[in-house]
Amino acid sequence: MPMKTMSSKEVYISIVGAFIATLLASFFSNHILVAEDMPMVLASTGASAMLIFGIPHSPVSQPWPIVAGHLISALVGITFYKLIANPVLASSMAIGVSMFIMHHTGSMHPPGGATAVTAVIGGETVHELGYYFVIVPVFFNSIILLSIAMSVATFREKNPFT
Length: 162
Prior knowledge:
Blueprint: H1 8-32, H2 38-54, H3 63-83, H4 87-105, H5 112-121, H6 124-129, H7 132-153
Helix pairs in contact: 1-2, 1-7, 2-5, 2-7, 3-4, 3-5, 3-7, 4-5
């Protein structure tokens, strides 16, 4: 299936939207949480922004996969961090199990893999958050991205979630 193309106007609006969304997510993660290891968290947020704003018509760029994919991956990653001492094994298991659950819930969002790994190797700040990591920053960053994407949709020629 060929990827839907965007007009020049849509591309430029998407670029501005991605900038604003990642800026807000970065502000939230870095200033509100005052965390040292948040750049790793923002890696999956940046990957999501690329999908949401760059290929908004893709099935992996829709609201359900974005939110559920990240939440599932964060939960699984934290769980495997707590269960398996070896970070390589824990990360690998977290990716596989996250993918399995995302497939079975119709919530496949590839940046979720980075979220799962971040939960395992994200450092002391992420580990101290424990399961709270699912809400702050993972859920909030997903909502920030989606909110900006929906706002950007009003300036686009086409709805990004179709």
